[in-house]
């Protein structure tokens, strides 16, 4: 693969990045080729030593999305970072997607439980309107207790969500670093 083919393939694989970021990355690889040519290597040898442009692009995109998550930890950024990490290899499909789905299930269950408990007084009120003969003060007190427990669950889920998000981002960074370190580069 020649320098032009390598750079063209890398540019195409990095199309999701902005033009400025893409040009900066391409400039770095142009410098790799220039240094290699000064050392007496051919363009084919340099391209072979750099590796696959598609794999390089996957690694760069994963790093880019992880940096975005660190600055703004929105749900969309997290999903893009997970998807980029999964794209690094089939092994990551199991290693990243499994824990992500498990954590997502815990988040959804915790938030749903908190919301249901908080809404329990409204359900007692609806029940009293629909079936006025079944209204009991015991139901009101239990629903108020559940509402209080639900508020504590919601507060706990807020802090747990923040902590687990930070932990999962660290796990993704570790995973991407591990994959990058496993590739041979000269």
Please describe what this structure looks like.
The protein has 186 residues and is mainly α. It has 2 domains: 1-50, no CATH class; 58-181. Helices cover 83% and strands 0% of the residues. It contains 8 helices and no strands. The protein has helices at residues 3-13, 19-38, 43-50, 53-71, 75-86, 90-118, 120-130, 137-181. Helix 1 packs parallel to helix 4 (53-71). The mean pLDDT is 82.
Helix and strand succession?
A: HHHHHHHH
Q: Please summarize the sheet with the most strands.
A: none
Structural class: mainly alpha
Radius of gyration: 26 Å
Spatial separation of the terminal alpha carbons: 17 Å
Percent helix range = over 70%
Q: How many helical elements?
A: 8
Overall number of strands: 0
What would you call the shape?
Answer: rod-shaped
Strand content: under 5%
Question: How many discrete domains?
Answer: 2
Residue windows where pLDDT falls under 50 for at least 5 positions: none
- Average pLDDT: 82
Concise account of the structure shown:
With 186 residues, the protein is an all-alpha fold.
Per-chain topology:
Blueprint: H1 3-13, H2 19-38, H3 43-50, H4 53-71, H5 75-86, H6 90-118, H7 120-130, H8 137-181
Helix pairs in contact: 1-2, 1-4, 4-5, 4-8, 5-8, 6-8, 7-8
Name its key features.
186 residues, mainly alpha, 2 domains, 8 helices
């Amino acid at each position: 693969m020649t320098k032009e083919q390598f750079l063209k393939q890398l540019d195409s694989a990095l199309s999701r990045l902005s033009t400025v970021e893409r040009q900066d990355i391409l400039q770095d690889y142009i410098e790799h080729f220039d240094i290699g040519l000064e050392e007496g290597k051919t363009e084919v040898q340099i391209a072979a030593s750099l590796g696959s442009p598609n794999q390089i692009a996957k690694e760069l995109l994963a790093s880019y999305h992880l940096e975005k998550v660190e600055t703004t930890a929105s749900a969309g950024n997290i999903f893009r970072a997970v998807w980029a990490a999964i794209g690094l290899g089939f092994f990551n499909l199991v290693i990243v997607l499994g824990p992500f789905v498990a954590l997502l299930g815990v988040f959804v269950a915790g938030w749903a439980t908190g919301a249901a408990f908080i809404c329990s007084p409204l359900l007692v009120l609806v029940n009293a309107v629909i079936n006025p003969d079944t209204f009991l003060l015991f139901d009101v007190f239990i629903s108020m207790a559940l509402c209080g427990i639900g508020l504590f669950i919601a507060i706990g889920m807020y802090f747990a969500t923040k902590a687990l998000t930070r932990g999962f981002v660290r796990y993704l960074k570790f995973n991407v670093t591990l994959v990058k370190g496993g590739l041979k580069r000269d």
